[in-house]
Amino acid sequence: MKVAIVGAGISGLSSAHYLRKLCREGNVPLELVLFESSARPGGVFDTVKKEDMVLELGPDSFITSKPWALDLARELGLRDSLLGVGYGQRKDTFVYQAGKLWALPEGFFLMAPSKLLPFLRSRLFSAGAKLRVLFEPLVPRGGGGDESIRSFVERRFGREIFEKAAQPLLGGIYMADPDKLSLLATMPQFLEMEQRSRSVLWDLLRNPPTSRGESGARYGLFLTPAEGMSLIVERLCESAEFARQDYKTPVLSLKKSEKGWLVGSGRGEEEFDAVILSVGADTAGRLLSDVDPQLGARLSGVRYVSSVVATLVFDEKDFRGLPEGLGIIIPSREGMNLVACSLYSSKFPGKSGSGKVVIRCFLGGELNPDAVLWDEEEIKSVLREELARVFGFDNHPTEIYIRRYKMSMPRFALGHKEDISGVMHRLSRHSGLALCGSAYHGIGIPDCVRSGELAARKIYADIIR
Ligand SMILES: Cc1cc2nc3c(=O)[nH]c(=O)nc-3n(C[C@H](O)[C@H](O)[C@H](O)COP(=O)(O)OP(=O)(O)OC[C@H]3O[C@@H](n4cnc5c(N)ncnc54)[C@H](O)[C@@H]3O)c2cc1C
Question: What is the pLDDT of residues 6-55, one digit of tens each?
């Protein structure tokens, strides 16, 4: 069978890997052709190697609580090259507030404490906010349906917890406005806790999700390949055994044909038995608008947000004001452009070279959509001014790498999960067509890998039938 993979991000490459595996096991001949609009594979993955540094300018690690990325890394023979995050370091997350950095209390997990004592001792939150959290067990259960993150957190824990912690933590992960983000599509475990135990606080206290010394994110669950995230991409390209990899070749049209599908690009139209679309949902919607207008319209309804990631390298001996921890979040109420800083050299000492401090700064997102349009000088000047406020010193980087991620992150609006069920249901009418990517089951790398595997399974089942 001849299959087109459209889009060479982690989702598309994973789909190719799993389809190759299924066909090998089933003794089905497979010719895979990759179409990619940019000049290289990997999508938002972007590893830069310089001297003894391995810098990740895009995603830097993957979580292991969902097994799919780790399973894939093992299949690709990367098990021994995986490094943990912040080994031997304090795993604190800091909140920038009123000119100072405040540690999130140990055990604070995304929107609520899972350890009471550190929370009650914390000077980040007011006495009123702490009392409000202690009263959370008295808040009645919600209806269990979808709700925005903001509405859920304010309903259960009050406004201060939302503004100081949940907004910057969750807004930072999704680069989106938590007022518009669906809880069901992003953090369904909190809805489950509420339904199961009525009190999210009690549930968290009984089953703390964070390890000792952690706050904010569960850093201890993340892994990264020592040689760079791009190694996953290289290995996937090898394992897929593509017959052809066409770069700088955006797919412009998709039609049904007698035998299967006609894929149109600058090189003309080519016929395939099956197609896996692993591009953004908006692009997939456009490509499918003639084949199935209803499916096309549903896909085009998924909105995307942009962000800027600037990676700054400093000489360690000159850097002043580095807190002992792994990340800093900046609540939007501080009125700054910075959304978060990831303390890369503390997270990955083995990848950041000797004698260096490396900090990744996140700007933009749904609350600041213009940042992605700024030129380099504007970005650098914002960084200089705001980093001096955050660290309390005017540190001078020796190198700056700036990457703009235009419309790269899907924003899971209220009702997203239901919409995607509708998309998948509709897709089942089209034999030899599959969709995968961050828009469907989750934006994290494990979810993208899983979506690639599910797409491969659909295509294999369609063709074998
Ligand atoms: C800055 C940033 C940091 C992140 N950090 C993390 C992290 O640390 N851990 C984590 O788990 N997740 C992280 N994520 C999320 C995760 O990395 C992404 O959700 C995931 O990599 C998306 O993969 P994808 O293959 O679905 O999409 P993409 O990587 O966007 O790939 C889609 C590909 O399709 C191509 N394409 C588009 N249109 C066409 C067309 N018409 N024809 C042919 N090709 C086309 C594009 O050029 C691109 O290569 C991060 C995301 C971003 C943006």
Answer: 999 999 999 999 999 999 999 999 999 999 999 999 999 999 999 999 99
254 band by pLDDT with thresholds 50, 70 and 90: very high
CA of 165 to the centre of ligand 1 (A): 27
The per-residue pLDDT for range 213-249, each reduced to its tens digit, is 667 678 888 999 999 999 999 999 999 999 999 999 9
Instruction: For ligand 1, say whether the CB of 353 is within 6 Å of any of its atoms.
Output: no
Q: Which amino acid is at 428?
A: S
| Cα–Cα dist 455/276, whole Å | 7
Angle in degrees, CA 316, 321, 327, rounded to 5 = 90
Assign domain 2-42+229-302+413-464 one CATH number from 3.40.50.1010, 3.40.50.170, 1.20.1050.90, 3.50.50.60: 3.50.50.60
Q: Is there an atom of ligand 1 within 6 Å of 41 CB? A: no
Q: Smallest Cα–Cα separation from 76: which of 275, 230, 245, 277?
A: 230
Alpha helices by DSSP H, listed for 207-333, are 230-240, 281-287, 293-300
Q: What ipTM was reported for this prediction? A: 0.99
Burial class (CB in 10 A: 0-12, 13-18, 19+), 320: exposed
Q: Is the CB of 311 under 6 A from ligand 1?
A: no
Pairing of the two strands 2-6 and 274-277: parallel
Among protein residues, the one whose CA lies closest to atom 19 of ligand 1: 443
Cα(445) to centroid of ligand 1, in Å? Answer: 9
Higher pLDDT, residue 85 or 73: 73
Ligand 1 geometric centre to CA of 223 (Å):
18
- Portions of the chain given CATH number 3.50.50.60: 2-42+229-302+413-464
Give the bridge partners for 261, in sequence order.
256, 272
Q: Distance from the CA of 11 to the center of ligand 1, in angstroms? A: 8
